[in-house]
Amino acid sequence: MPVTAKLSRRFYETFGDEIANELVEWFNRVDDAYRSEFRELFEVHFSRFDAKLEQRVAELDARWGGRFAQLEAKLEQRVAELDTRWGGRFAQLEAKLEQRLAELRGELRGEIGLRVGQLEARLEQRLAEVQSGLMKWMFIFWAGNVVATASLVLGAVVLLRK
Q1: Which of 10, 21, 41, 44 has the most CB atoms lying inside 10 A of its own CB?
Q2: Measured between alpha carbons, how far is 28 from 34 in angstroms, rounded to an integer?
Q3: Domain residues of the chain, as ranges?
Q4: Contact at 8 Å (CB) between 20 and 43?
Q5: DSSP 16
Q6: Cβ atoms of 6 and 27 closer than 8 Å
Q7: Can you give the pTM of this predicted structure?
Q8: DSSP-assigned letter for residue 4
Q9: Which residues does 119 contact at the CB level (< 8 Å), separation at least 6?
Q10: Cα distances (Å, whole numbers) of residue 94 to 84, 105, 107
Q11: HSE-up of 4 (CA within 13 Å, CB side)?
Q12: What is the predicted pLDDT for the residue at 4?
């Protein structure tokens, strides 16, 4: 994108519009030429840099490629060894854990059953105590009513005989 050069009004008055415009066009052509040369030079240097970079990466890959493959193979082997060594132990631990959990569940169920039995016995005892107390109060209330009713009946009989 060319940048249009602006010249002062005095320059146009001194040399005239034709010469000043021609000078501005010449500046723009020189600017375009330098820009295109710089772009070409940049592309050449960048392609050289890119080629060198690819070459160095290829050299590093060739030099280290075998070592990385060896390290990866060793790592895979070690992981497989650990998996086989610890895999059996994890299975044993899991079986022991399941067995212990089953035992604890059984113990817990037994303990809960015992506690529920104890609570049922205490509840039955307390209900028997409450029932006994209610029977006593009912008897006292019934006896009081019988005495009151008997006295009313006797009082009425005595009044009627008079």
Answers
A1: 21
A2: 10
A3: 9-161
A4: no
A5: -
A6: no
A7: 0.33
A8: P
A9: none
A10: 16, 16, 20
A11: 5
A12: 55
Closest alpha carbon to 39 in 27, 28, 31: 31
Specify whether the CB–CB gap between 2 and 31 falls below 8 A.
yes
Q: Are 20 and 7 in contact (CB under 8 A)?
A: yes
Amino acid letter at 10? R
User: In the chain, which ranges are continuous DSSP H helix?
Assistant: 9-15, 17-161
Q: What is the mean pLDDT of each run of 10 residues along the chain (162 residues)?
A: 63 83 86 91 91 87 77 88 79 88 88 89 93 92 92 89 80
Of 56, 122, 134, 11, the C-alpha closest to 48 is: 56
Neighbours of 24 (CB within 10 A): 15
pLDDT digits (tens, 9 = 90+) for 105-137: 888 888 888 888 899 999 999 999 999 999 999
Q: Residues 6 or more apart from 7 whose CB is under 8 A from it?
A: 20, 23, 24
Structure tokens at 102: 């089953």
Structure tokens at 155: 């009082």
C-alpha distances in Å from residue 35, one per residue of 20, 42, 68: 23, 10, 46
The token duo for 138 is 């009912």
